[in-house]
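WARN no homologs supplied; continuing
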Amino acid sequence: MEYRKVGKWGLKISELGFGTWLTFGPQLDVDTSKKIIREAFKNGINFFDTAEAYQGGMAEYILSQALKEFRREDLVVSTKIFWGGSGPNDTGLSRKHLVEGMRNSLKRLQMEYVDIVYCHRPDPSVPMEEVVMGMDYLVRSGMALYWGTSEWSAEELEEAHRVCREWRCVEPVVEQPQYNMLKRDRVEKEYLPIYEKYGMGLTTFSPLASGILTGKYNEGIPKGSRLDVFPDLRKRFEEDGRFSKERIEKVKSLEKIAKSLNVKLSQLAIAWVLKNDHVSSVLLGVSNTDQFKENLAATEIKYKLTDDIMREIDRIL
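OK structure emitted
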């Protein structure tokens, strides 16, 4: 397992991280979560990511139980604040919700601090000065060691850094965007100035495009698959064209490359993300140990992706 710095900053995290969205709670209880986390830690994963929104906080609680047997100093734990409940101040990035949401997350996690806290989404209803001051408080008070953002635009990141420098606040060090073979522009184009100017790292999610890059949806929605279990997610994917004929043809072409390398398409897709030097860690969402072990192999498969193969993948995409 390779450990990568978060951008230019000193924090080192495993190149593969462990995510808890849609798995901890709906698919994994405490006991099964413990088994998978043990396997992850044994194989070098030290980065574990969750959010107050995941299963109404249940994912944070299950993660806390699964991590109890490890030394806190050996873990890098992150959570995200935005969707904390139904009350008028339970959502968004107001200073009130940032502070209260962080305290509630720490209670569920049963920790004194998290290593990274993210603004789970941008909040145009709150002045950037308030957001920055709120996140600065979380870091300076010791509730988090670093702060970051998730799915912010380059323009929003520029504004956040400008305000931080004007107000002498702690700056964000990491962005958590979706990044995979089928969703590339933000990471590869929009953020390019951000890496150089501010040294931000990336902890990317959805390397398999919610399963599309496994090939299992090439002929429809299999029973028991994630998109079968979560119909709202399936509807969203169908509406935004993720099952278009053009995309499925790309997936089938990528499967041929995977077969030529004697690897699975899922492994190829994760390894491809790892080839991007700006990526600090790729978050995995797994529901059993066999799936985890399969994904783990991407750390070795990345070395098979020569310049010629990367060019061929780019041609297909």
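The beta strands are 3-5, 12-14, 16-19, 47-49, 76-81, 114-119, 144-149, 174-175, 201-204, 279-284.
OK
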